[in-house]
Amino acid sequence: MFLKDVFIIALSAYGGPTMHLALYQKRLVEDKGYLTTDELMEYFSLCQMLPGPSSTQTLMSIGYQFGGRLLAFLTLLVWVLPAFVLLTICAIFIGAFQEQALDYLRFVQPVAVGFVIIAGIKMVKKTVRNRQGYLLAAMAFIVTALLRHPLDTWVNMKTPWMFPIVLVIAGLFSYFDFKGSVEKYEPIKMNFPWRSLVSFVLIFIGAGVLGKISSNPLVILFENCYRFGTLVFGGGNVLIPMMLEQFVNHSQYMTTEEFLNGVGLVQAIPGPIFTIASFTGATAMKGYGVFQEVAGSFVSTLGIFLPGALLIFFVFPIWKSIKKHPIVVKALPGVIAASSGLVLAAAYLMFLPVVLNWIEPGDFFYTNIKSSNAVNWVQAFIIGITCILLYKTKIKSPWYIVIAVFFGIFI
After folding, report:
1. Which of 53, 78, 103 is the last residue of a domain?
2. Is residue 137 within 8 Å of residue 122, measured between CB atoms?
3. pLDDT in tens, 251-299
């Protein structure tokens, strides 16, 4: 019965973690009485402190409470399955009819940029509460957006690593400059589920090593996604800049247009935003055949969700102690503030190829902008309208994509 309720939620779960939480409250707390509101908020708070998909981990925690690891794992499968199937099918279809599909979806791309802009603004408003937070968010934006291309040129830095480095620095700054009060921490004697933590670390190390020495794209996709799932704080919108950098700019598995189509489609399909890995995994394997595209989607989806699942298996039994640890309390605000800056950076980096016209594609120095017809005003107008409607109205996100596809087909 619990899994049936999870599946019903999965079919209506639009709008990101906040909307997902509202659905949990309505069906699992108010309608079914599986847990109390206080318990739900405690689980959500715990998962906000962990890397990975917070709404997915919250749902797994509820499953863990009722049926241990097995039910938590089955909860994850049921929750992810609808979005995995739909996004994989979309990626395969777009890959098979690429030229026509990209033309039909050309208005989805600016709408997707609008989604990310508003997600970043709302995240800043929701999570940043003091001057330190605004400074860390600004630092993250400046380094990963405005300085991205100069840094890559000057120091030959592997740009995908900018994001975890920025998050670590923000966490350290927050820890050492923490001004608030921390409750006295009293360690609790308990049996730690070390097997899950050891598995989490060994897979991270093993995937990293294999990703370096292997040329198999499926291995590389799993490593990339497992790394993302390990390092992302703040939800699926923080995942987008990391994927954009890795798959578009660094590995060049897909074009910016293809990636933006995935960002738009994941907003139109129910389920966690992290399932964008299903789309990017299948898209990265286009040209290898349908079986390989499905395999790419599967290994990417497995990689993105596995770290969060293993962390829940380790942390949930000891969460009452973990959430009050001084290191977590002091460092987490800085990590979350910087994460909001990364979302705004993603919006900026996606804005550049969509709105501005470049002499050499992919070279985003302003000296490379075309002197005549520099701005694509239609795309800029769509982004502006999308941002206003998202911010001022309660129109559900799938309708934006439906309308964008409609105009793409008939105009």
Report:
1. 78
2. no
3. 888 888 888 888 888 877 888 889 999 999 999 998 888 999 999 999 9
